[in-house]
Amino acid sequence: MCGIVGYNGSSQAAPILLDGLEKLEYRGYDSSGLAVRSGSNDIEIVKAKGRLRILSEKTDEGRALSGTCGIGHTRWATHGEPSENNAHPHISDDRNVTGVHNGIIENYQELKEKLLRHDYKFYSDTDTEVAIKLIDYYMKKYHGGPVDSIARAMIRIRGSYALVVMFKDYPDEIYCARKDSPLIIGVKEGESFAASDVPAILKHTRRVYYIGNQQIAKLTKGEVKFFDLDREEVEIEPKEVTWDAEAAEKNGFEHFMIKEIHEQPKAARDTIGSIIHEGKISLQETGLTDDIIAGITQVIIVACGSAYHVGMAGQYIFEDLARIPVRVELASEFRYRNPLLNENDLVIVISQSGETADSLAALRLAKEKGIRTLGIINVVGSSIAREADHVFYTLAGPEIAVATTKAYSAQLIAVYALAIQFAHVRNTIEEERYSELIAEMETLPAKMERILEDKERIQWFAAKYSNAKDMFFIGRGIDYAISMEGSLKMKEISYVHSEAYAAGELKHGTISLVENGTLVVGVCTQNRLFEKTRSNMVEVKSRGAYLMGLTSYGNYSIEDTADFTVYIPKTDQNFATSLAIIPLQLLGYYLSVARGLNVDKPRNLAKSVTVE
Ligand code: AGP
């Protein structure tokens, strides 16, 4: 949530900041702002409510602001409504400290009261203004430099933050501080950058530093130094970003989401390629040895949103193949409920960003209790990746659209690989079945490509039902997990009220909502459950529902019931999610387009939820 960019170099800062913010607009987009300075000149601040485009127009694409050092921000409101007043950057009363922030300062009221007692005035409703003024307060009280004042403020602040700050008396320097919110630093000759995420600076440099938790960075032109809370300098090794800058561009597609839907075969292929060697799964990179796997007695999967839905599918697959008990929990619940964990459990945290606040807190809780943790993570160097005992990196590349598609698909592959390997090590499947499953998993990318070739049918259907008000997705077993993700896609980008139901549960209340014309999607990829779900479809149809069926080629009898059917290629039933989700993603996408909505940046949402 919220996007931050900082630049310190010799070019004009404002256009660079605007360009970086555009790459981060997926993180928040209700208001934005820039603060730019040149040498010892005063800091100039411009803010705008609404999309970044408005800030860009207001500053003549950055040309109206002169200076080679600056910071910028796009906001996803937490404290205070979206308004120019609440937009960042925020500045202290005498313009000594200017800063932008991503995160939540939990004790901001208490800190604000303290500052009010010292005659500070407040012009916004934000917690950020409090943080900036607290730094100013400590600078004046102890007459220390920027690192000292920031460190003192960090000790008092409770919550999460990525802060990027400029000081009136320290021209050509930018300071950063981080706790539990993402922030990276990029450096090239004569220039340095700070950003919430790599795409913002990738066109300038691939040399990136992942600033540690509760650390401070000082950025001069082309150089960066890091400090801990004791103001001691610490060494951090830079990393080279390997992915292509083009991966974060639309490349001719109308939206990032449809581009990323098309990148799913590649995401799956790359992730499969990273763990299969000579027909066998190798988890060597994750550090999960066969001995460790053999000693695990229970798996707990913890995640949020779509990553949670991957966990739901994973539960069916793990238990079916590896015969090991699996619990799936929402991270926001798990972290506050004192869960029962045993020393031989494995807690798997699934997260695209690796920065989701609740997932990170869940990971820390498991670690505190001494439980082994594994992160299935897409963003290299993210907080969860750094803190988990083991990491399985999905190779989906940068995902920009708020609605996840390719990262979800890559996470599924990770879960399949783990389930198969657990089954192998625990001898719950024969050698032959092991090889069969691996071979079948390798066919998934080509099968995904086949589904994408047929996307026009879904586009037509979506256009026809673009006025839908309510939708239900029903299925049993893995099909229920698929339904949950299909339903979320519909809600988040198309704003259609939708619900996912375990088909057998419908009669226990929800069926009373079905009336003439209600759209119901019946997901029937599990042969054993096909007839069961089909009878539930008949039940809703007899109450007036319009039915879309989603099943595998061969199950043609569904046409006796469904009004419109989408077929997916046959695969092992455990892998059906990878194929069945694509038509549902396309349905959500095309419905959103048909309704004229902002597909990539749906209202009220942000790509990574770094606040709870
Ligand atoms: C899915 O489309 C959403 N954007 C959201 O549910 C997302 O999956 C969730 O916030 C978890 O994010 P993470 O994978 O980065 O932890």
Number of strands: 27
Q: What structural class is derived from the secondary structure elements?
A: alpha/beta
Bound molecules: 2-deoxy-2-amino glucitol-6-phosphate
- Could you give the order of strands across the largest sheet? 3-2-4-1-10-9-11-15
Q: Provide mean pLDDT, rounded.
A: 94
| Low-confidence runs of at least 5 consecutive residues | none
- Give the number of helices: 18
| Percent of residues in β-strands | 15-25%
CATH architecture of the largest domain: 4-Layer Sandwich
Specify Rg, calculated over alpha carbons.
Answer: 25 Å
CATH topology of the largest domain: Glutamine Phosphoribosylpyrophosphate, subunit 1, domain 1
CATH superfamily of the largest domain: Aminohydrolase, N-terminal nucleophile (Ntn) domain
Sheet having the most strands: 8 strands, antiparallel
For the record, the CATH class of the largest domain is Alpha Beta
Percent helix among the residues?
25-40%
Quickly count the domains.
3
What distance separates the N and C termini?
11 Å
Overall spatial form: globular
